Amino acid sequence: MEARHTPPRKDGRVIIHFDYDCFYAAVFEAKNPSLKSLPFAVQQKQIIVTCNYEARRRGLHKLQLVRDAKRICPEVVIELGEDISRFRDASKELYSFIRAYSWSGKVERLGFDEVWVDVTDMVSYNMEMLNQNSLAQSFFHISRADPLEGFAFDASSIAGHPYPKDFVSAGREQDSDLTLRLRLGSHLAQHIRHALEQQKGYTSTVGIATSKLLAKVVGNLNKPKGQTTVMPPLSADESACSNVTAFIDGHEIGKVPGIGFKLAQKLREHVLQRPATFDPGLVYGGTKEAVTVAAVRHHADINPETLEKLLSGPGSPHGIGYKIWCLLHGVDDSEVGQAKPVPSQISIEDSYNRLDTLPELLKVMNALAKSLLTRMRIDLLADDDNGFGEEHDSANGGATTQASHAATPKKWLARPKTLRLTTRPRQPLQPDGTRVRSFKRISHSGPLPTFVFGLSESAEALAEKLVSGALLGMFRRLHPEKSGWNLSLVNLAVTNMAETAGVGKTSRGRDISNMFRKQEDVLRDFRVTDTSSLLPYEVDITDVVSSDGEEREVCGPLTVASTTTTSAPDHHDGSGSWEEDGETDEENERCGYCGARMPGFALAAHQRFHSPFQ
DNA sequence: CAGGGCGAAT
DNA sequence: ATTCGCC
Question: Which residue is nearest to nucleotide C1 (CA to C1')?
Answer without folding.
Answer: A445
